[in-house]
Structure formats: structure tokens, C-alpha cells
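Changelog note: in this version the structure field was regenerated for every chain. One regenerated record is shown below for reference.
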Amino acid sequence: MSKKTTYTRVTAKIMLVTLLFTLVSAFIYGEYMKKNAIHALAHEDAKKTSMLVFESLYSAMQKGWNKEDLGEIISRLNQVDPNMKIDIYRTDLVAEIFGVIEKDKLAITQNRDIQKRCMAKRS
């Protein structure tokens, strides 16, 4: 016996394929949105953390604290999160006014992330 193809079966198959395609599309789009949201939140969190650290150190520098005093603050901040590394360096403008610290200059020339940031600011 041969099976007859009816409009009901064709319609049901089309609906199932459409449903499957919709579910797969929704899943892929959901994963994309989740990754995008996580990336945006991580970026915003890093920016806020950076600003908080900067303001803390800037406040201490306004009070006249020197590099050694700031080193203690940085050491404590670095203990908060083992995946976070904080350090401070003089910019070219500050180095022109107050002098270059050789240890910092060496660290700046060897750190690719700082080099990228310096190049981006100059552009």
C-alpha cells in the first residue's frame, strides 16, 4: 500500500520545519545577545573599576603622598583581586616636569598594553 500525501501532512511538515527553524534561530540569537551583554557589562565594570582606582590614587596624590606611599595603596588594591594588576606610571608630560623614573620607563617600554594605550592617545 502506498501512503497518500495529504494537504494536512504537508502543512504539518511545513509547520514543524518552520518551528524547528524558529527555535534554532531564537537559540542562536539568544546566545549572541548573552555574549554581547556579558561583554558590555565586563567593559563597563572594568571602566568603573579603573575610574575608582584612579580617583583613589589621585586623591592621595593631592594630599602630597609620594610614589612609595602610593605603592602601599597599590599593593593593597592588588590583593583585592588576584586577576587584577594595578600600577602607575608618569605620563610624558609629568616626566618632563618632575623627571623620568628609570624603573617606570623600562616597564613602560616593555609592556605592550601600555604601548598600545600611549599610541592611541597620541593619535
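Spot check on this record: The radius of gyration is 28 Å. Helices lie at 7-62, 67-80, 92-98, 102-110, 112-122.
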